[in-house]
Each structure stands twice: as structure tokens, then as C-alpha cells.
Amino acid sequence: MAVTQTQASTGTAQRILDVAEELVQSRGYNGFSYADIAGELGLTKASLHYHFPSKAELGEALIERYSARFLESLEAIASTTSGADSKLEAYAGLYADVLRGERMCLCGMLAAEYQTLPERMHDSVIRFFDHNLTWLAGVLAQGQANGELSFDGPPADAAQTVLSTLQGAMLVARPYRDLTRFQAAADHTLASLNGTRSS
Amino acid sequence: MAVTQTQASTGTAQRILDVAEELVQSRGYNGFSYADIAGELGLTKASLHYHFPSKAELGEALIERYSARFLESLEAIASTTSGADSKLEAYAGLYADVLRGERMCLCGMLAAEYQTLPERMHDSVIRFFDHNLTWLAGVLAQGQANGELSFDGPPADAAQTVLSTLQGAMLVARPYRDLTRFQAAADHTLASLNGTRSS
DNA sequence: GTCTATAGGCAGATAGAC
DNA sequence: GTCTATCTGCCTATAGAC
Questions:
Q1: Which domains, from first to last, does chain A contain?
Q2: Going by C-beta distance under 8 Å and a sequence separation of 6 or more, which residues neighbour residue B79?
Q3: What residues 143-172 of chain B have any CB closer than 8 A to a CB of chain A?
């Protein structure tokens, strides 16, 4: 596919997704319009509808691409990083990178707007969280098993805590435009899972 | 004032705020319109503009009232609950109550939409978080001083962690419509601040 | 694939009668 | 205070030429 369709990854559809992704992450699904994308790309609104007939389909494509990329990052962390604690740090780093771009996690943003989203987008948002929770629970269980990590309750609950804290830290830190607020919450939570505690 | 203007607390302006508050917490500031409120109250859009000339002013009034009520709850907790751990539990309970109503924290929702909000609403959102963080840092410092709580770093960082986790737990749990997900994250984080640890 | 043109609806907001 | 009527603008979406 990469051969038969040269530059496919920078084709119009991808550039539309790039701009739409930035808009949703910074302004929300209800906070941008086809006109915003068209203006940014020098196209007309009608042209956008050729690639994505409805805004709901654009939204769906957005989540699918974002999730796929995010899951690739998770696999990359799993295969290149050794040690549960390092993996969790790398995981938090993914969120820090998003926040540095003055963006919210795409699915965190969509979670806030969930009740107003087209129904076809609902499952995709849930799936993103499910995948993250599964990955986190796996890392946490591994760390607990080899004594690297220490926490009460099932790994799934700790996973829920990590995901919640990172999403919430982005949410709260963004209005302040202050990455250190995110880091404080992220570091504190990861430290609380560490087997070695100073307290 | 309560005497000279009987039923002021259930007057039209207050009923507008009630409906608007529910709409913002469940759908977001960009996810509702004057028509939604008018329909719910059996009024016309024009009548709403008599009480709140612009949507920005309505939004501002919304945050002010919500913040005032929330701060009252914080004072009530501070004066009726003894023990830092109990205060933190009561604090988390405030969020749980909001989530039970299938709502997001008003200011958590507005934080997501922050970049699209009228500028006059910005400071009010920040102030809400500041007040919460100050209150939390005070409780945490108290608990740390008397040995009831134990955590690394300054109380302000722990406060940032608690606020982030609770906001994020609401954000993530709401699409699942599952209060237990919120509770898992809330309980886990509060337990990590407890002086007595099983690990 | 991109354009012009336009439809049809809803947004926030205002004027002025009652 | 609430209404009817209306304005202006933007929204998503479509038809059809190029």
C-alpha cells in the first residue's frame, strides 16, 4: 500500500486528520468546524466532505488513528523498556508530550463531551481507555510479581488510578499552562506505587 | 435581602442557572444553547437574555454560584469533620455525589473547553482550582504535621495529585457510567496518603 | 478531487409590543 | 418580565460543474 500509493501518509485525508486532531485536542469536538480545517489547509468545506462525508465519520477516523498510534507507542515501550517503573515513567511521558503541545489527550477531551458525541464515536472512546487500562494492569501486575512495585488491591484498580491521575493532571494543568503541575501529580502517583518508599 | 425579595432563591434567574448548570456539567459549555434552557423552563430565548444578556455572562454567573456552593461545602467539612483522612474522604465524597448525578465537575468540564471559553470566564475557573488546592494543601499539611498522613514532597504537590486524580476519575468513569471506577481511583489515592500502610 | 453555489437549520442576540 | 418577530452569522451537508 505504501508502494502503490506514494505519499499516502501525507495525502489530503491525512492532512485533514492532522488539523482536525489538533483542533479536537485543543478546542474539543464541539469547538471546531469544517470551516476551521478548510481555512487551515486552503481548501473549501465541500472538499472536506469528499474525504469525510460527515463530521461523525471524521470523528471516528480521528479516534481510530489516534488509538492506533497510541497503542504502537505502548508496544514500543513494552519492547524497549525493561522494568515496570521505567515503563510507567515512559507511559506518563507520553502524556507529558501531549501536554507540551498544549493539547489534551484526544480521548480525554472526547470523554468530557461524551454525552454530545455521535453514537458511533462512543465505542471507540471506551476502547481506547480499555486498551490503556489493560496495558497498565499488565505492567502493574508484572511489577508487583517481581517485587519492583508495591500497592494494595488488584492491578486493575491501580491501573484505573494511574489513568485517572494522568488524565486529570492534563485537564487541570492545561488552563494554568504549567507542565510542572502535571509532573507533580504524575511523579507523586508513580512514586506511591514504588516498592521502595521513604515513609 | 432574603426578606425584601421573597423566593429570590427560586426566582427565574436561579431556575435558569439550575438548568444551565446541569447542561454544562453534562454536555459542556459548547454543547448547549439558550434554546435548550428555554425549552426546559417553558420560556422563550428572548426572556433568558433579559436575565443574562450574553452567554458569557451566564457562564460567569454559573461558575461564581458553583464555586461559592463548593467552598461552602469545604468549610462545612473543615468545621464538622475531624481528622485529615476523614476530611479527604468527605472531599472525595463531594465528587462522588456529582458523578452520581451523571455530571462532571462544572470547572473540570470548563477546563477541557478552556481554550474556547469567553475570556471573562477564564479567571473564575482558575480561581476554583486555586481554592481547592489551597484547601487540600491545608488539610494535607495538618495531617502530615500530626502524623496522620505520610507523603513525600510538599503538601501543594500532594494536593495537585488529589485534585488531578478525582477530576480524572470523574472524566474517565463517566463514559462507563460506572461509579466503582471512580471509587477505585479515589480510594487508592487517599490510601497512598495514609500514614499506616500495609506494604 | 476540488470547486461554486446553495440549501436548511440553529446559534446568540436585539427591537419593541404588552 | 415575558412575549413575537426578526437579524445576522455560522453550522453541517449536498448538487453539480470542472
A1: 55-191 (1.10.357.10)
A2: none
A3: 150-153, 156-158, 160-161, 163-169, 171-172
